Amino acid sequence: MRKIISFMHMSLDGFVAGPNGEMNWIKVDEEIFDYVGNRISEGDTALYGRLTYQMMENYWPTAGDKPEASKHDIEHSKWYSKVHKVVLSKTMKDERFANTEIISDNLFDRMNEIKQQAGNDILLFGSPTATHSLIQLNLIDGYWLFVNPIVLGSGIPLFLDVKDKIKLNLLNTRQFTSGVTELNYMVDRQ
User: Fold this and answer.
1) What's the whole-model pTM score?
2) Average pLDDT in the 168-184 region?
3) Rounded distance between C-alpha atoms, residue 58 and residue 117, angstroms
4) Residue 129: how many other CB atoms lie within 10 Å
5) How far apart (Å, rounded) are the C-alpha atoms in residues 149 and 75?
6) Which helix (H) or strand (E) segment is 159 a member of?
7) Are 143 and 66 in contact (CB under 8 A)?
8) Cβ atoms within 10 Å of 97's Cβ, excluding its own
9) Cα separation of 107 and 71, whole Å?
10) For residues 136 and 96, what is the distance between their CA atoms, to the nearest angstrom?
11) Is 108 helix (H, G, I), strand (E, B) or coil?
12) How far apart are CA 97 and CA 30, in angstroms?
């Protein structure tokens, strides 16, 4: 069975965005882009909430075509154009986007159907609201977290209204020269 892996930048105090959704505190550089690019290039399904999907759709389809495009922009743009996208949204029901599936209801059943299909891990990018919904339904199988060396004090937390404990097994860590630390966890279902 495929796994849903939540890919998220977060502050040391557990926030994934500032109080108004700000993400200008996230540190990214070529070292992180290369590392993340290698891992996601194996992915064949990307999962987004509506807002994150709209941000991605406004940038990635043409990002690699621009004259000033970085290596990361070119590679991620190619990946984005071919990956199957799943969007969790109650407001995009009737819209049609290339290689995109919209889930607006029966989230538990629909996500379990996708998890049963052949393919690689399903990567959930950002999308705090979608992440919260999937956590509530116990559908997230792993957390790929990039902890940024900052304390925000307030904002949108990664874990919100968690009903039951979520026991995790640490698979690996990595420290980047920027001070960002990767924590890669799988949910312990035992």
Assistant:
1) 0.90
2) 97
3) 28
4) 16
5) 27
6) none
7) no
8) 13
9) 36
10) 28
11) helix
12) 30
How far apart, in Å, are the Cα atoms of 120 and each of 40, 95, 115, 177?
10, 26, 9, 30
| Residue ranges in the chain assigned as alpha helix (H) | 30-40, 50-63, 71-82, 107-116, 128-136
Selection from 155, 156, 147, 157 nearest residue 180 by Cα: 147
d(CA 36, CA 71): 13
Q: Residue written as tokens 């500032």?
A: 18
Q: What is the pLDDT of residues 28-73, one digit of tens each?
A: 998 998 999 888 888 899 999 998 998 898 888 888 899 998 888 8
CA distances from residue 151 to 11, 106, 145 in whole angstroms, order as listed: 6, 36, 15
Binned at pLDDT 50, 70 and 90, residue 156 comes out as very high
In DSSP terms, 187 is beta-bridged to 168
Domains of the chain with CATH codes: 4-187 (3.40.430.10)
Give 186's pLDDT tier (boundaries 50, 70, 90). very high
> In sequence order, which residues have a C-beta less than 8 Å from that of residue 173 and are 6 or more positions away?
181, 182, 183, 184
DSSP letter, residue 164: S
Render pLDDT for 96-130 as a digit per residue (tens, 0 to 9).
Answer: 777 899 999 899 999 999 999 999 999 999 888 89
Sign for the pseudo-dihedral over CA of 26, 125, 89, 56 = positive
